[in-house]
Design brief:
The structure holds three protein chains of three kinds. Chain B is mainly alpha-helical. Chain B is built from four helices and no strands. The chains are: A alpha/beta, B mainly alpha, C mainly alpha. Chains in contact: A-B, A-C, B-C. Chains B and C meet through helix 3 and helix 4 of B and helix 3, helix 9, helix 10 and helix 12 of C.
Chain lengths: 111, 104, 346
């Protein structure tokens, strides 16, 4: 009985590991330059990961990229100038957003 | 005791299949529940590495699997700590098997 | 001092981790002693540590589930858990929680829920508090007058005796808890407490523990153990749903759980040395503290409310730890004395 339940647990864990393989999203953070609600595309100026007192969200890198957010979960609607954090997958030449977090407009500290 | 292995034989594939099903359910089945909470959080995977990166990434891409992991790990860690503490407590020499119920 | 701070990968903040361990430890002590999750105690502590509140509930739920598991293992060895009763109650609890949650969503559409929910909560806490102290008052008066009924000794409130008389089939005997009643009694009671828990957005241990004692008729010790079993199952379920919404910080769960594992041992073993009515009274004090803190919060005194909760946690866990250490020391001393006299006799 014990061996079988251990086996059962192993099967579940193995499944968990297998099911997650191949899913790998990238994350970028930066300032929203444009949000087109018609095509649901977001243009972002990317920031780097050098966080400091003056640059709590990183420093601007000058690189801009476009994200297709038509299938993404979006929290508070992005406005130009908001700091966004986007989890995305690269499909062909397109960056397809999975989740868009509006760092500026949502207060995680509040209940 | 003779009944137990029979049930065990049946249980193993069922549990296995359930585990498979949970792992492979497409995300859109669960997407409906998300609209009510207007809070979307993206974990910053650029700042972490190793196992933390795996879980942060999972948090971003597959919330269902992440939730299953959260529950499984909590149970495993809880059981591990429970057994460890049990062993430690048994070494103190206190009787941990009996107690009298005294209401006053 | 950088090693004292831990990075939370999902929330993206660094947290003073010994603080998390301490919260886990003290709520573990209290939870193991009273048989409740103690979610309402964790939130103000997390708030002070600067933990993002968006992750508080889910993190709490998971840590409470893990902690209750540790306490249930220990209580189970004492024979304090009536699994049959627990499993039957799981049914009512789950249906109740779902119905309660739906009710809140329905009210949310009508508007202005939060304040209403809070006042209902206060009302129930006041009711439970009054009940606990009234019961104690009545029981001690009976005891002084020398009235002793049954094997449990003098008891104040005995509503369960009436409820046990309603024999709608199937009638079941609960061996560990030591009573026989209609299966519908625990189902109804757990449904009601589950409903309230879902409605109020709490774990429900605060309501279920007294319900087990006063309505179902469990001895205090078995009410504590059986309730912890319930808390564990509903906590796991809660952890799952909140993780699905992304409202959990796993690293914090593990850190708190480590502290809770030690605390839970102390709280659980302390029940061995505590008298049933002692547990009931201390529980009543916690209920009153919880009530006062909610009222203060409603009127905008958030920091005072947090202070009251933190002071209660501190004093309560210290009190329980003293009970445990004193009791254990006494037991070990007696054992030694017994061994010595046996050696002498030989």
């Amino acid at each position: 009985m014990r061996r079988r339940s251990v086996l059962g647990i192993m099967v579940i864990l193995l499944n968990l590991c297998l099911a997650s393989a191949g899913l790998c999203a990238e994350v970028s953070q930066g300032k929203c330059l444009k949000f087109d609600e018609g095509s649901m595309s977001i243009t972002l100026e990317e920031y780097d990961t050098e966080f400091s007192q003056e640059h709590p969200y990183g420093r601007p890198t000058g690189i801009t990229s476009v994200y297709n957010a038509s299938k993404a979960q979006i929290g508070a609607p992005p406005k130009v100038g908001d700091i966004l954090r986007i989890a995305y997958e690269v499909k062909g030449t397109e960056r397809v957003a999975i989740k868009v977090m509006n760092v500026t407009r949502q207060d995680l500290m509040k209940k | 005791m003779r009944l137990v292995p029979k049930r065990g034989r049946l249980l193993t594939p069922i549990v296995g299949l359930l585990g498979m099903a949970v792992g492979w359910i497409p995300d859109w089945v669960w997407a409906g529940g998300e609209k009510a909470t207007n809070l979307v959080v993206v974990a910053d995977t650029r700042r972490v590495s190793g196992i933390m990166k795996y879980f942060a990434n999972l948090y971003n891409t597959n919330t269902l699997l992440f939730a299953v992991w959260a529950v499984v790990l909590t149970v495993l860690f809880g059981a591990l700590l429970g057994l460890l503490m049990d062993w430690l407590m048994s070494r103190t020499g206190i009787d941990l098997k009996t107690r009298k119920i005294i209401e006053h | 001092m950088e090693w004292l701070y831990l990075y939370m990968p999902i929330a993206g903040v660094t947290i003073f981790w010994p603080g998390l361990v301490l919260i886990g430890f003290s709520v573990g002590v209290i939870g193991g002693f009273f048989g409740m999750g103690g979610a309402w105690m964790v939130t103000p502590g997390l708030n002070i540590l600067g933990f993002p509140m968006a992750f508080a509930i889910g993190t709490d739920m998971a840590h409470i589930a893990g902690k209750s598991m540790i306490s249930t293992i220990r209580h189970s060895k004492f024979g304090n858990v009536d699994y049959k009763l627990g499993l039957i109650m799981v049914l009512g609890t789950f249906i109740g929680i779902e119905v309660g949650a739906q009710l809140v969503m329905y009210l949310e559409r009508l508007g202005k829920v939060e304040s209403t929910v809070r006042w209902i909560y206060v009302g129930f806490l006041a009711l439970i508090g009054t009940m606990v102290f009234y019961d104690y008052y009545k029981a001690t008066r009976k005891k002084r007058m020398g009235v002793v009924e049954g094997e449990k000794g003098a008891e104040g409130i005995t509503w369960y005796k009436t409820l046990h008389r309603i024999k709608i089939p199937p009638v079941v005997h609960f061996k560990t808890a030591g009573f026989t009643c209609s299966v519908w009694l625990p189902i109804t009671v757990s449904f009601m407490t589950g409903l309230l828990a879902g409605f109020l957005g709490i774990g429900g241990g605060l309501l279920r523990m007294p319900a087990l004692v006063y309505l179902i008729g469990c001895p205090t010790h078995i009410a504590v153990g059986t309730d912890l079993f319930e808390v564990m199952i509903s906590g796991l379920y809660g952890a799952f749903t909140y993780s699905m919404k992304g409202r959990i910080e796993l690293v914090a769960v593990f850190v708190m759980l480590t502290g809770a594992a030690v605390g839970a041992q102390i709280g659980t073993v302390a029940t061995k040395y505590a008298k049933g009515y002692g547990i009931r009274i201390a529980f009543g004090i916690c209920v009153v503290a919880c009530m006062v803190s909610i009222i203060l919060k409603e009127f905008g005194f958030s920091s005072l409310s947090a202070a009251i909760i933190l002071v209660t946690i501190g004093l309560m866990s210290a009190y329980i730890t003293v009970i445990m250490i004193k009791g254990a020391a006494q037991e070990l001393r007696e054992k030694k004395a017994l061994a010595r006299s046996l050696a002498k006799a030989a």
